């Protein structure tokens, strides 16, 4: 019996390197021996010839085996629980079986959660959303390339000017104001354009105007579904970018340093008047040089357009049914911020994002996470000569 007991002697630290399968085998082995000792003990207990010393030794052996079995079972159960949790987590994070759109949603959700919770992002997620490298030394955390493209080109809250403007994301952008040239310096036959080129130069250099968009995330959103989290963050960021662009482009009183962005900044864009708004718009179209007039569009408030239609109709409903392009002679984009109609070739209006970075924080008092986007951007009219502001002539 002593030999058997010595064979069962265990060193608990040895179990640290055991696999779950090996621990199951150990449980089975000790369990079988425990059952055998219990059976022998039961037989000894009813055997009159068995001494109490033998019964007590066997009882002690049973208690030792039971204690050892319980220790192994506890370790086994703990390891099994941990492995199930790890498997469940890997399964949850796995991109297998997902289409490309679903993979992008999951990758973006992982990136956002990791950012606000201070966790690393998996390699597969990094590849899907194209996280830029080179930030290991603690520099700016650049927004993933694919997310930046979506924010720049797919706004949620509409900046109606994006429907007619060119939008880019190029670092240090410089573009020629006129896309072609001829050896003869006199090829520009629009005097206003020629004067502008001479005064301001023939190249537009886009600056880096910094602003932040802060997205507040509750615990329920962060720990909710991937689709809900990414949709919430995307919508908030896009709304912030679009709102900022529109506010700067249509500001009646622009902030210091941002004056060049506004169509309504002092006398940057030529004003053309008319007896009424309809005449002012048509006069402005006619005042454009033909190189701009052919591609001209009108940006104006819907309420102003309805006043024009009502005045032109004079009891006839045909103008209400007609498309705006047929009424004004040029395509129309409606924007409530356009306090005066803007007429021009919007190929000469460009919005550019130089860079985007992100950061995160936690509002402990309110229990919200903060996902913060910092953007550097600029928007410029390559040629003021390509635009006109339509005004109603004031009568004395």
TrEMBL record:
Q: State what protein this is by name.
A: Phage capsid protein
- Provide the protein's localization: Virion
Name the Pfam families for this protein.
Answer: Phage_capsid
Question: What is the first-listed, main subcellular location in coarse terms?
Answer: virion
> Taking every annotated instance into account, which residue ranges of this chain make up the domain Phage capsid-like C-terminal?
142-388
- Which SUPFAM superfamilies does the protein's record reference? Major capsid protein gp5
Kindly list the residue ranges recorded as spanning the membrane.
Answer: none
* Annotated InterPro entries: Phage_capsid, Phage_capsid-like_C
Q: Which organism is it from?
A: Virgibacillus pantothenticus
Source lineage: Bacteria, Bacillati, Bacillota, Bacilli, Bacillales
Residue segments, region Disordered: 76-96
């Amino acid at each position: 019996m002593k030999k058997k007991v010595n064979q069962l002697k265990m060193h608990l630290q040895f179990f640290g390197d055991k696999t779950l399968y090996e621990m199951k085998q150990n449980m089975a082995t000790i369990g079988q021996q425990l059952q055998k000792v219990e059976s022998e003990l039961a037989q000894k207990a009813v055997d009159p010839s068995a001494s109490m010393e033998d019964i007590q030794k066997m009882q002690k052996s049973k208690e030792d085996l039971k204690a050892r079995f319980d220790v192994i079972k506890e370790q086994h159960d703990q390891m099994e629980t941990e492995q199930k949790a790890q498997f469940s987590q890997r399964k949850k994070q796995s991109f297998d079986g997902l289409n490309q759109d679903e993979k992008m949603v999951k990758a973006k959700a992982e990136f956002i959660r990791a950012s606000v919770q201070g966790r690393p992002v998996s390699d597969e997620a990094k590849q899907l959303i194209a996280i830029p490298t080179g930030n290991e030394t603690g520099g700016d955390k650049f927004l993933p390339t694919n997310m930046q493209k979506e924010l720049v080109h797919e706004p949620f809250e509409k900046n109606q000017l994006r429907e007619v403007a060119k939008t880019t994301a190029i670092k240090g952008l410089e573009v020629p104001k006129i896309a072609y040239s001829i050896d003869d310096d006199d090829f520009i036959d629009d005097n206003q354009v020629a004067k502008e080129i001479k005064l301001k130069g023939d190249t537009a250099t886009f600056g880096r105007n910094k602003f932040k968009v802060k997205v507040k995330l509750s615990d329920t959103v962060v720990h909710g579904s991937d689709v809900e989290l990414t949709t919430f963050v995307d919508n908030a960021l896009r709304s912030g970018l679009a709102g900022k662009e529109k506010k700067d482009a249509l500001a009646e009183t622009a902030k210091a340093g941002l004056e060049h962005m506004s169509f309504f900044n002092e006398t940057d864009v030529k004003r053309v008047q008319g007896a009424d708004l309809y005449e002012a718009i048509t006069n402005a179209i006619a005042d454009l040089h033909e190189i701009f007039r052919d591609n001209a569009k009108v940006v104006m408030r819907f309420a102003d357009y309805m006043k024009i239609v009502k005045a032109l109709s004079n009891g006839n409903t045909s103008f209400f049914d007609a498309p705006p392009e047929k009424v004004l002679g040029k395509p129309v984009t409606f924007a409530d911020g356009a306090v005066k109609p803007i007429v021009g070739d919007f190929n000469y209006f460009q919005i550019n994002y130089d860079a985007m970075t992100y950061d995160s924080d936690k509002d402990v008092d309110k229990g919200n996470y903060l996902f913060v986007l910092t953007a550097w951007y600029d928007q410029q009219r390559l040629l003021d000569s390509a635009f006109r502001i339509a005004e109603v002539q004031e009568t004395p």
